[in-house]
## 1
Amino acid sequence: MNDSDPTQVKRRDFMQLAFGWCSALFALGASAVAGARYIVPNVLYEPDQRFKGQKPEDYPEGTTFLSDIRVFLIRKGNSFRAVSAICTHLGCTVNRGADGHGFHCPCHGSQFSDNGEVTSGPAPRPLSWLLVSLSRDGRLIIDASQPVEAKKYLVI
Amino acid sequence: MLQRVWNAFRASRVGRSIFRVGLPASNLERAQVAISSFLLHLQPAKVHKRTLKPSTTFGLGLISLYLFLILGVTGVMLMFYYVPATDAAYQNMKDLEFVVTAGRVLRNMHRWSAHLMVVFVLLHLCRVFYTGAYKPPREFNWVVGVVLLLLTLGLSFTGYLLPWDQLAYWAITVGTNIAGYAPLVGQKLKFLLLGGHMVGESALIRFYTLHVIVLPGVVLMLVALHLWRVRKDGGLARPDEPAFVQQELAPGQLPTSKTYGLMELARGSTPAVGLAPEDVVFTWPNLIFRELLLFLAVVAVVLVLAIFWNAPLEELANRVHPPNPAKAPWYFLGLQELVAYSALWGGVVVPGLLVTALVLLPYLDRRRRGLGVWFARERKVALTLFTVCLIAAVVFTTIGSLFRGPNWSFQVPWKPIPAEEQAFH
């Protein structure tokens, strides 16, 4: 190799450049990843999505609104079901229709049938049905974080 | 008397170390004061006469800057009492309103300035569009301006949550859910913004941090860049002067038709090169005086608004019952109206396309014809497109603000809402 040829890159210069750039980029990249990861919380202090209610017989026939978890508990004879009151459009709380049927959202006017299906308005999905179960001491447990297939009842 | 005290101070060692020039008496000093004073050097020593004419810009950008400064000062004042915690924030608002001396006026000033700033930044954007002032060489400064508009909306939106009342809570719930509709990243973005799944303590502290330091810091830096580019791009946009012919120069040859004096040197083909010296006047006092006058006017208007009209504060945030109807801030009501038809289109597609179009505009519309002229005839297509979008935005915003009642049903604003429809269930 001819040392005086200006088009030749010396090994030492090449190594210095390569190491320099690699470590600079690595430092920047690692800091960016760590910084981005830093703002994703690892622990959430949010209210429990499971709600322990009364004994089944304490609920009246028809609809009860469980405000703690924003869920409608609907009793029909000895069957219980839970429908989420959180509008699937933009997260407002839906209201029971004025005549006791269906649900409607005050924010953007979405309307839902008794089963939670969208009947009009911008909502993209039906209201979720949620898991209703019975605790050991015979009380209802509604889990708002556990959606189930529509038309799934708890029958006592 | 005052004059003599000032003169003595100016002549002292301390006075000379602070003020390099002092109040200028000669043209030389008028130039020196603009060049060597920190605040005044934002301006060139001399400006074109067009700059002084109100109809050139109506001072819209400057008014926006003044409102930003008022927001900074009143915002820092509010920070002395405000605690960003869900169980304290609303109480602090009540304290500011009823207990703290002048607290109500400061909060009102902050709120009204924020609304006005959105209005004036939008008007400023319209002015720059209708005078074609984004055309080369000012393309990049237009893009900086678009980013500043988005930051202004972001500042207003993050500030919206802080009072922790019904208005705040549900506007942010709706707003962040719209972000959730963005393809692929939507849900992650929403989680990151809120620091959780719902609007709660972590969302409040995140919005607060963004509102009081992150966004204002970025705005401040970009405003500095924005103003610097105005100067470096040759001052305010104005029509090319027909009399000017660029001289072909041999290397080393000095142009013969120019006077080198107190003007700035401007490189390349920027409009300031070849400027006839007769059309310019000294910045001090011509421009400075007008700017100070405008500042006084802006402060006066904000003060009058703040003294006579109170900023709204609804009941404490209730995470179960949204108000009916639940509305976003007014400048998002056009989007909310679209969102009422489809969240994806109204919340993501339309605003995304609008912002993309605004950013690309100066790179697509590059002809210099019509530069610096209001509603230039040569720009019929661009003017029509922009005006149609503008009218659509105004119409949707008006419908969303005034014509939407309970359950987002259509209603006319001059008819009272029946009591049974207002009630919650």
## 2
Amino acid sequence: MNYDDYEQNYDYNSYDEYGSHTGDPNQDAEYNRQQYSMPETVKQFLNYFRNNIQEGPIFELQSLYELSWPKLTEDYFEKRPWPEESEVSEIVGDDPVFMILYKELYFRHIYARIQGGPTLEQRFNSFYNYCDLFNYILSASEPVPLELPDLWLWELIDEFVYQFQSFSQYRARLQKKTQQELETLNSNNKVWNVLCVLNVLHSLVDKSNIKQQLEIYASGGDPDSVAGEFGSHSLYKMLGYFSLVGLLRLHSLLGDYYQAIKVLENIEVHKKSQYAHIPACQISTSYYVGFAYMMMRRYSDAIRTFSGILLYIQRTKQLFASKTYQHDQINKQTDQMYHLLAICLVLHPQCIDESIQQTLREKSYHEKMYKMQYGDLAEFENSFVYACPKFLSPYPPPVGSILDDYSKEAIQHQTQVFMDEVQQQRMLPTIRSYLKLYTTLPLSKLATFMAQNNRNDGQWDLDKETQSLLIHLLCFKHKMKNVVWLKGASGLEGKFQSGSELDFYIDNDMIHIADTKVAHRYGDFFIRKILKFEDLNRKLHILKLPASSS
Amino acid sequence: MAETMKQTVASMLNGIERYNPDNLPTLERYVEMQSKENTYDLEANLAVLKLYQFNPHSFNLDITCQILLKALTNLPHTDFILCKCLLTEKQLATDPINQIIYLADILEQCDFQLFWTRIRTTPELTQKIVGFLDSIRKFVCHVVGITFQIIHRNHLAVLLGGIDDKTLQVWVKKYGWKFEENELVFIGNQDENIKTKNISEKIDFDSVGHIMASCR
């Protein structure tokens, strides 16, 4: 079957023929009770899809995956699962590899769209299906004859980690489980086990030699020279690369920020490379890297990571607009990153790109930053909880625990660690606001300001106030001097730098202050506007008005 | 000894092997060794905490305390936060972990005087870690080094834990600082590093090039 045949038969408008939902609840319920018969279009699609996975050109497979599948989902499976395995195999015949891939999409759709989420059984079956898939790919003695679009591979790995995350959360909510469910869970501890997930990701990394490839690539060599039999195949190479990002996410979810950053050795997050062409993957990478840096108090690195990717998103926004199912995820993560960037900038004021600054001045961000600057701890916490990853505990609550909800424990803990840090820095914004007004300031004078600010009864002792001010000043210097990445393969490396815009030193009794003064930037703005205008002008010239064409 | 151990341990931290609970006894011994020989290996210690995270029944309070205290010896690096993130809230509340958390908290706030008072009341807490107090003094010197141009001699001695004159001289010499008149200590010329920056706008030729080209 070639593409044209398919196109002829594929008629999106023939929707009604197959008896879809009417919109009337009673009739719909009736319809659901009837034996469901698969629409002809779907049958044709499944056959065509299968053939293309076997031997089709990759661009065709890409369009089936990115366009046809979501379109059919919208038309026929908005609120119901795709057809069962048995129904599908009746149509496409005996094709184990296709069935595994189909089931992966089938379960993914259930996780994303079906109300109430997947059942325990579906979670288990999805896990077993992943095992089948990875066994097929990893245990082969030579590379398997399969090629999938890179976006598919990325979403596959990302979904695998997501479903693990989802299971861990589900597993930790003991309060709504039946006795039977608990028994099943307790006797199946291997399913969605963290070690199993780690093992899959590590095996994909090892099988593809992706680490060696990245190392050679970073030093300007040809990655194929170390790729080996498997790693030179696109399927293995990209699965390996995406598994590194999967590990980044997994480590972050477990609060292991050191490993999170370390796993990306030899990947320069902002740099364009042959591996970095899936926007969703790029965005996810930057989100987790930036977050890990923020937790490690490497604010400069976090700010650089967030503003880099946010700038990229700003400039390529139109690109994602068409693909709705990715769009939601990207929008959410973008908003989260603006929140995290806002937090970092409050803790560590620093110059950033003007257009990002512009967005932060808008909307709710501005108000949130203002509140945080004035020491509103609740605002810090809210922003953090909204923007942080969904942390999880790697192990289920022990058998026999009180039937309670344990799914929030991990997130509470990470929030607490972050809030401890904020609490330690609570005096710094006030000190900064005074220092900003001077180039030199005697210690005693600042101590007086601080005392007047903190106490309104006038009952204070200058010596004591100066003592406590000195402690805060030391803390200021300590907290604002952080490791900053400069160069090198590992994102963990770096040198201590003071990247914040205000700095000072103490000369016995006198504080000497150094501020950063930024001249207004007009050039960038005008250059962009001029180019935009030129572009518009050019388009206008190309336009042919009906009158002139006749 | 810790040096040779480092090689053995490195192979245990590679890939999936890192999560093998059978390695735990060796890694724990390595922690003890670091405490005794005043060496440090963050990555190996994080691997231990990770194994505890995955195998809660193997959790060892004493080893965890040593790891946390060792992390403090590496201030101003944020190793302590990394360790904290791998533990649970319940573990942090356990005695004496909660005491170590408190020490970390006052150190992070640079309330050194309070820290030394606290240490004097609970000396047994950190006794197992050889060179612990001097490591903290190094951190104090780091903070002093980035903050002061000139500091009062007494103030410096207090920050370093109320050390006597002779010891103070050793520390001052070690960091290349100088005693000056009027009981002052000269730390270094900060005005060379810390000065007001003016960021003015620079437009590079490339970006104007486009415009010039389209203006023909």
